[in-house]
Design a protein that fits this description.
single chain; mainly alpha
């Protein structure tokens, strides 16, 4: 039992480190002009610098690849959930923390990383690397998306069934319905 708990803690710490490296990879990629052809080199450099001795960085690669493959949808969600902040005005750190958090929240494996854990991990990255208001901003955007998704696994007490993620269009439709309801009440 003690060995299992220790292994679980090691895996969580390893994921946290790999998530941090993934954020730094996306930061560097974004800072250098978003050139996808350099991504493998950027990953190797950041793993060597920030996680020396890490033998397996599959989770880092999965996070980076997933965030980049879904970047158009993810960026559209950021703009939709933070309309007062055009994407190019969101700090480069916050933008890439959100990309990771949204990827894990919407496209991730809930058996490995439940939605609330994905949100909390993104908030921790914002506290560690972002500015004074980064954690609140990241929490607000991810919380909005989580609620619009129907709060998957909200009441989970150990069950591992994953609700289907709704596509961007459904989230947009729900937001429009909510906006109309507010207008009608006024």
């Amino acid at each position: 039992m003690f060995v299992a708990a220790r292994t679980s803690q090691t895996n969580m710490a390893n994921r946290h480190l790999q998530r941090s490296v993934a954020m730094q990879v996306l930061f560097e990629w974004d800072f250098q002009g978003c050139h996808d052809e350099n991504i493998e080199e950027i990953i190797a450099h950041n793993v060597a610098e920030f996680a020396p001795g890490m033998e397996h960085c599959d989770f880092t690669k999965t996070l980076v690849a997933g965030a980049l493959e879904n970047q158009d949808n993810i960026d559209a969600l950021i703009e939709k959930c933070a309309p007062e902040w055009p994407l190019d005005q969101v700090t480069i750190i916050d933008r890439n923390i959100l990309r990771l958090g949204i990827f894990e929240l919407m496209y991730g494996n809930y058996d490995e990383v439940p939605p609330k854990v994905a949100i909390n991990e993104a908030i921790e990255l914002a506290k560690a690397f972002g500015g004074d208001s980064s954690a609140r901003f990241v929490n607000g955007v991810l919380g909005t998306i989580y609620r619009e998704m129907g709060e998957p696994m909200k009441d989970d007490t150990g069950k591992k069934d994953k609700k289907n993620n709704e596509p961007l269009e459904k989230i947009e439709d729900k937001k429009e319905e909510n906006d109309k309801e507010v207008e009608n009440k006024e």
